[in-house]
Specification:
Shape: elongated
Low-confidence stretches: none
Radius of gyration: 21 Å
Strand order of the largest sheet: 1-2-3-6-5-4
Mean pLDDT: 81
Order of helices and strands: HHEEHHEEEEH
Strand content: 15-25%
Largest sheet: 6 strands, mixed
Distance between the termini: 58 Å
Number of strands: 6
Structural class: alpha/beta
Amino acid sequence: MRIKNLIKKINLKDSAKSFFALVLIFGGLYVAINGFNYLDPINLCYVDIDEDVLRGNKRTIVEAIRKLKRDSKDEYRTMCRNTHKISENFCLASDWHLNPTWREDYRGKSCFIRGSKTIYLYPRKEYSQEIVEERAEAIKKYSNFSKEFWRNKK
């Protein structure tokens, strides 16, 4: 009897408005975050994308991540767990603090500093499917490097 009275007291119009407002807020947050980074809440994946606005193309990075997700769920999970940032920038190889053996190059178009969980993709303004595939391969390779590094560190 009490449950029926409680249900009658709840105004469905107010509940629907609240639900709609929450959907709008969370939808807006999702769009805002994906405008600057990569977020996949269903798979609990967040990667900070540091794009080069003048010389780079963020779209190729996002499409490379999506390609990785489509082609290989295991590699995608590895990337999500072992990559915090993908930076469209030149390597930090000139940093004198870094031992050259800690740097891995991939065809001279990307690199990875072991232990950093950051992948560096050299800026490229143009867009093509070849660039997307090349970047997907680099992300996959460096995510596995990061996974092995942290596995051996423990």
